[in-house]
């Protein structure tokens, strides 16, 4: 009986040693499928040219930005987060009869789908990419949100809706949609990005608004309430 138990344990140990780890398979996925479009390590040098030419957003701080459950689900069923692609200037075309420019959907490449196992492995690898120097824990205070005032701040007073949509089909398309932001983004990241977008990339086109901390918290709290099926 003891010999049988020992042999069983040895076989299990050998199987565990032979099987690739979740993190290792995730790292391989990042290397084989992600790095062609995304920076998974911090670029050595930031430049306007790099920003204009990149095919997808930087992911070297993904673990400080995304929520893992959302990331795992999204990688299996990707939705359009940036109507104009990673760099909207490369996807716009003139509108008809002198109307405003529109996005040429043919120039926006859809994100590939992963199966459930690969999505989980890739999500684990991405969540390991954290940058404490960019996103400080506890930046979001979690104060109660006055929805009407925060919505006014977002849509009118600070002009966020000119680039972002808080509801499907409403708002600008030069920035990522925010109607799923509460599912997608960590509140601490939202706070830090609103405070200083250029800390993440000195050439990114989102303006630094120099808001008071109270307004940053209000906007971040509002954005955190924007979730699929419950957009405000």
What does this structure look like?
It holds the Pfam family Cytochrome_CBB3. This protein has 232 residues and is an all-alpha fold. It has 2 domains: 22-131, Cytochrome Bc1 Complex, Chain D, domain 2 (Orthogonal Bundle); 135-232, Cupredoxins -  blue copper proteins (Immunoglobulin-like, Sandwich). Helices cover 41% and strands 2% of the residues. β1 and β2 form a beta hairpin. α2 (22-34) crosses α5 (116-127), α4 runs antiparallel to α5 and α8 crosses α9 (213-225). The longest helix has 17 residues, at 2-18. The radius of gyration is 21 Å and the shape is globular.
Radius of gyration: 21 Å
The CATH topology of the largest domain is given as Cytochrome Bc1 Complex, Chain D, domain 2
Helical content, roughly?
40-55%
Q: What's the main sheet like? A: 2 strands, antiparallel
Order of helix and strand elements from N to C terminus: HHHHEEHHHHH
Overall 3D shape: globular
Instruction: Give the neighbour order of strands across the main sheet.
Output: 1-2
Mean pLDDT: 84
What fraction of the residues are assigned to beta strands by DSSP? under 5%
Unreliable runs:
1-21
Count the helices. How many? 9
Total count of strands? 2
Summed up, the domain count is 2
Class by SSE composition: mainly alpha
Cα(first) to Cα(last) distance is 64 Å
CATH class of the largest domain: Mainly Alpha
- CATH architecture identity of the largest domain: Orthogonal Bundle
